[in-house]
Amino acid sequence: MKIGLGTAQFGLDYGISNPLGKIPVAEVKRILGFAAANGVHVIDTASLYGDSEKVLGQCLGEHHSFHIITKTPQYNKSLITEGDAEQIKKVFHESLVRLKQSSLYGLLIHNGDDLLAQNGAALWDAMNDIKNSGLVKKIGASIYAARQVNAILEKFPIDLIQLPINVLDQRLIRSGHLERLKKRGIEVHARSVFLQGLLLMNPSDLPDSFCSVRVHLQQYQQFIGERNVSPVKSALNFVLNIEGVDTVIIGVVSSAQLEEILHACVDAPELTANEYRNFAWSDEEILDPSRWKVPA
Predict the structure, then answer these.
(1) Is the confidence at residue 75, as pLDDT, over 90?
(2) Closest Cα to residue 6, out of 38, 49, 59?
(3) What is the rounded average pLDDT of the residues 94-115?
């Protein structure tokens, strides 16, 4: 199963199309149970996702089949200190405690720019120490833009990368970066498949800050509607059929929603990459949710 489970909603109110807020622990248990029973093996979390790691620790139990990936703190500074590098180790061990695990599958720099800051190699060295101690199998970075891929590949032998890909955001496909990553044998996880739910919403319901893309989204939804393909199935079909993507990280708010998503992965619609190419968007104010101006 190529689907992996994102867990920001387990610890935070997260997503433009999520009116329910943080998911109750009982529902998290149902989601994890359904995921395990249906071949979902990757869980993506982070120390910055509120209570997500703690909730996972409560719900997973001693024996499970999941590959858990967590992330470092974010530093967002021009100069990384040795103290920052030590903090990586400290926070990782705290993550192990919260998750109630003796080791994890992956550890990612939460923002690739931290590795590229002055003395960013100190963060890499700290992660590599964790890997060499046997506490994590793969280390790498979560990135947002092609420039980060170029710079990181020049400096660091990463094992794993997480990056945004969706119907609107096709930048890393068009630039050839995805192909470059796979040639190096790097495991690729795609996130933002639904663009925090933007691709699933009725364009007329979007806030005014999305007016630049509203007509484009209406045309996209008309296109898939004429082919009797749901927004969920279309968004998944696009990413699941990209050669080089190993895991597609999705977030859900209920086990019923996860069931819908897994069902949508079956019997892929007959939409080609060329057809999807017409719906690529270039404005990073839309492609990067951290830039969204969403009313409170």
Answers:
(1) yes
(2) 49
(3) 97
User: Could you tell me the CATH number of the domain that includes residue 65?
Assistant: 3.20.20.100
Structural domain contains residue 263: yes
pTM: 0.93
229 is a domain residue: yes
Taking alpha carbons only, the member of 186, 77, 70, 80 closest to residue 123 is 80
Res. 141: pLDDT tops 50 = yes
The answer to the question of residue 130 being in a domain is: yes
**How many domains does the structure of the chain reveal?**
1
Identify whether 296 is part of a domain. no
- State mean pLDDT over 183-203: 95
Confidence at residue 16, expressed as pLDDT on a 0 to 100 scale: 47
Q: Is the pLDDT higher at 146 or at 169?
A: 169
**Domain that residue 136 falls in:** 3-291
